[in-house]
Structures are given as C-alpha cells and as structure tokens.
C-alpha cells in the first residue's frame, strides 16, 4: 500500500476522464473521478442502472479507461462476484469495483449486495449516495432523508415530503462483518483518499459509502456541492467512520454539532419543512450523534431532547461505537 | 465410454463436468436442484476444478453468469420455472453481449395453478430472448445436447447462449441407461474455452453500454442474423458429435417414418418417445403416419419444416404449454412456417401442469390429424386429456 496522505499526493492519471454528461456541481462525478484515480488502471468496473451509466457509457463512447460492464439495476453484488471469479481463474489481480447508486444499493440491489457481503467476495462495492432515484427524475429511495421533497414524496396539503428516516445501510453492512466498510465525504478529502486506498489494499468484501450531493435533486446551487457535503458532517446528517475487521472507528468528529437547519437551508428539497418536522429530524439526529460520538459531551442543539440520549441503537455494541 | 444408470439431471451435471465448466453460479429449485447438487459434489470431491457460487437468487445466478462469462471463462448453470422467470431480465443481457453461457432449464410449470411438474410455459416465455433453445427426448440426449450446447454456443459464428430444456421429473428424476463419454473424447470435441470479448484491464473494453437509437437497431439485426446462422453450425456440430461419439440427433429437427407419410405429428421433449410408439402402431395398421421431432425452438427451423412437410396432407402440432386463445406457441410458429405449404396444421395441447400424456391421448391426436388429412373439418386446436368436454 502506497503512502498517499493528502490531496497533493493524488495520482493525476485519470481513469474516469472528462467529457462525461454529469450536471454541473455533481457530487457523484467528483467521487467517481477520485476513486478511479486511486484505484488506477488495474481495475474492472461494473455500473448498474444509475446516473453514472448514463453520463459515462453511451455507445460508442466511454469515460472509463478501464474495462467496463453494465447490465441491470439490482445485481451489482452478483455481477462483480462473477467477474472476480473469472478474473481470479484467469490469474488477473484487478480490483473489481461496483459503482452503484443508493437506489441500487439500499433498495433494489440489497439482496445481491447482502449475498456478496455474506460470501465475503473479493470485491469493492461503492455506494454513491445522492439520496434518491435521481436518474429517473428525483424519486424517493430508502436513502432519502426525513422530510425531503422528491417527486414521489411531494409536498402536498396533507402530507409533506418523506415521512420515514434514512435507512442505516452501514449498520446492515456491518452486520455482515466485512473486512472493511467506511463512510466518505467529498468535503473531507484526505480522509476520503485514505479510505479508498485502504479499501483497495484489502482483500475480501469492502464497502464504501459516499455522500454525493445532487444539484437538481437536492435543489441546490452547483457551487455549493462540497459545502453541503461539509455541512452534512457538521450537523450529523453524515458521519465519517470506518469499520475494519470488526472494529469501528470515527475518523472525523466535529467539535460542536451545528443545528440541522444550517444544512437544510442550503437545499430546496427541505424548504417546505415546518418547525415540527425540523424538530423531529433534529431529535433523530441527536440520537444518531450520541450513538456515533458518545454522549459524554452535551450538544446544545440537543438540549431539548434529553430522553434521546439514553436511546440505545440495536447494533450499538456490535458496532463498538461508544 | 462408461455406461451409467442415472437421471437426466445427473446426466446434465456430468456433461457440464466433462465440458470442464469453470464457474457454476447456482440456486436451488425443484426439479433442477439435482444438477447443481451433483456439480457441488464434483467440485468438493476435486473431480471438477470450478468455482461453485451459491447465489442469493436466480436473478443473481444469471448476473454472476454474465459477470463470469464477460470475465472470460466457461460458465454453466441450471434452473427451472420460477427461477427462469426471475432470471428473465438478465437473460436478455446475454445474447446481445454475445456471451456463450450454457444453461439447463428443467421444464416445470410457471405461475399460479402452481406446481412442480413439467410444462413448457417457463422456457417458451423466453423464446424471444435471443437464447438458443433445444428440447431433449431422453437422458442420453440431455447429456449429449448439453455437450453440443457448449460447442455451439462458443462457435465464433454463433457466440450465443444455449438453453437445454428437459422435462421435469419425467427425465430429471428418472434413471435411464446413459453412455458417459470419456474425458479425452470430450476434450477433442470441445476445445479449451477462448473468450472472444472479455473484461481485461490490459485490453480495456466497454461492454453493454447504453445504446441510443442510432445503433441499437443494427445490433439487434446482428443478433437476428447470428441466431439464423446458428442453423448451419447446429448441423455441423451434430455431424462432429456423431463422428466422435457415434450418436446423431438430426440437428434442428429429426423425423421418424416420415418418408411416405400422409400425416404426422410434430412433438418435442419426452412426448416424442410416446409418439414413436403410436406411429409404429398406426403403421402396423397400414396407416401412413409419421413423426417430426422438433429439437430447436430457437433457431426455429422454418426451412427444414417446409421441406419436411412438403408431401404431408396434415400435420398436428403438440404443445405442452398454452398461448392462451391461440393454441400453443409451437403450433402458432409451425403454422406460420407452413403458411406457404398446402399442409393443414392442427394444434394439440396436452400434458399441462405435468398431466400424464397417455398412448390414448397421442392416438387421439393422430386420429384428428388423419381426419384433417382426408379434408374433414376438425378443431383447429384440441386440448387432450381434459376432464370434461371442450367448449
């Protein structure tokens, strides 16, 4: 494993090259470009149905300089399993990576993902999480946060936005006890680099969960993509940690939890949210915060949610968080 | 050569082993399960050097098969019924990606009025997927057709997946005498697998991207031509097989006592054995009855059927599945094939949901076709063995 430490050490040889069709300010394109730089040329890519397949592989062109395969939506865990089995038999050592969206991971692809994780397949699974089915035009997924507007959770006169909280995919992955799983942010780049490098070097099933802000889906300013990703971490909407051989470790802990409104106000998808829903989301976030970072330090924004501090996550001990 | 008394499921597993299959993604489903169980045993006993991948579903099985085949190795799997239906989406990725995957489908009825017994409505529903489909009559043919399937699929003029279809239980769980070829013979017949396209970082290729309207139509036409051209390769492989193993199956279709026949049935699968017996009876009564055995449903033998039926006055077509309100799928396709031949074509649906087809049912089919051959008016489609009368 090379000793890449900061963004200055990043390889400049792109495996995901420019000219793709991503929107201005697309967080996913930033993530893929940099993941592919670190993985390098000895990589085989599988992309299920997603924005990525549409922006990067429209016959007869491709933005990937590595071998690339697409077939369907729900089978990233399975197709990568097959590719790796064949390449192993042919004596190839290439990193087989699946680059899937949140719909393809949290929802329709969960079964094949679980199968690959349970068999501890020697593959790298990357979930590029833009919190919705953005390729089909902004529909709700299991990754969409509470309260968010999508075209299938419209802001109506009776129901406003999504009523369920975001699924904890990392806890599901952790329950499979993989060699490596980590959450990444494009706003924390040194941390991002280290985690991709670690995932590349390890054998067995590896999972990277990257938050990828989506300009049209989140109704945000293209210039604010990285800032939104940063604010997600500062408010607890996104947490940075890794689980390595069963041990969970926080890789970045904000000093003070910022109110969720600092995150919400940057995006049009939350604009409609009333105080009651904001408080409900804040309460959920406080429980998540204390779970991840411990409750030894009171967070002022959580002062009104005393009870939540004592709520224990069902996987708390398994994840060794506190 | 070794003689064994084994089920067709085991015969297929032996064929996949003799073919030196390298990756076997699998998921259990009755009546296919014996195949993957046997392959797992071969692998765990060190008799076959292959990766056995226990998948989470048949959808994942075909996804793994695509990944492994695109990764450059020989892939075999097996399924039935609901499993094939669950694979449906992935089946379509295979022919257009020109991946020579071989799969056994042990025919079993699909869907509500659910059962585990033989019916062809599972594989018939996939006849437009681009997979080649062969239906077999007995356990020996199950083994032989599977071996031939690899050779056919991997031929550079074809490069298409092949589905070997065999009757659930009637073949899958019934033991028969099977001549098991020697490994050296099979190695001569089936050369080492050399992938045409593969995912290799030293020669990066883009496989199966999104294809806009400017290109998709040509690709589909190329697929249409590849299926058409597989006809000649099927004939060649049948000859090659006969030279190596001494058994021949006639390619797309086979015929029985058809030379001077005035009327005949067309059958596929195990019903063919029964039809042979009935033809012999009819011949002994002096009737000019014959038989056409349909082996390949894809490619469909349009030309071969027209040639075979030239002197027939009437042809009855057996179907073990229904294409509701139109008889069965084989009937409609045969009728289309023979639209320029002055042969009357009648449809005969039987054996649905695994119901036994008796010699009486088959005799009834022949009697109707004989009437049609004399110009008498008969039902276009008859369901045989139905409890109660037809409407």
Q: Main traits of this protein?
A:
heterodimer, A: 322 residues, alpha/beta, Rossmann fold, 8-stranded mixed β-sheet, disordered C terminus, B: 391 residues, 2 domains, 6-stranded mixed β-sheet, 5-stranded mixed β-sheet, 13 helices, 40% helix, 19% strand, globular
Architecture overview:
The complex is a heterodimer of chains A (322) and B (391). Chain A has helices at residues 27-39, 51-56, 76-89, 103-107, 110-118, 169-174, 189-201, 215-218, 225-235, 261-264, 275-293, 316-319; strands at 43-46, 68-69, 95-101, 124-129, 180-185, 206-211, 240-244, 247-252. With 322 residues, chain A is α/β, with parallel strands linked by helices. Chain A has an eight-stranded mixed β-sheet, with helices on both faces. In chain A, strand 1 (43-46), helix 2 (51-56) and strand 2 (68-69) form a beta-alpha-beta unit. The longest helix of chain A is centred in the C-terminal third of the chain and has 19 residues, at 275-293. Chain B is of the alpha/beta class and 391 residues long. Chain B has two domains: 2-245, 3-Layer(aba) Sandwich (Rossmann fold), CATH 3.40.50; 253-383, Rossmann fold (3-Layer(aba) Sandwich). Chain B has 13 helices and 16 strands. In chain B, the strands form four sheets. Chain B has a six-stranded mixed β-sheet with strand order 10-12-11-14-15-16, with helices on both faces. In chain B, strands 4-5-7-6-13 form a five-stranded mixed β-sheet, sandwiched between helices. A two-stranded antiparallel sheet of chain B has the order 1-8. The model of chain B has no long low-confidence stretch (mean pLDDT 97). The interface between A and B is large, with 44 and 42 residues. Strand 2 of chain A pairs parallel with strand 9 of chain B.
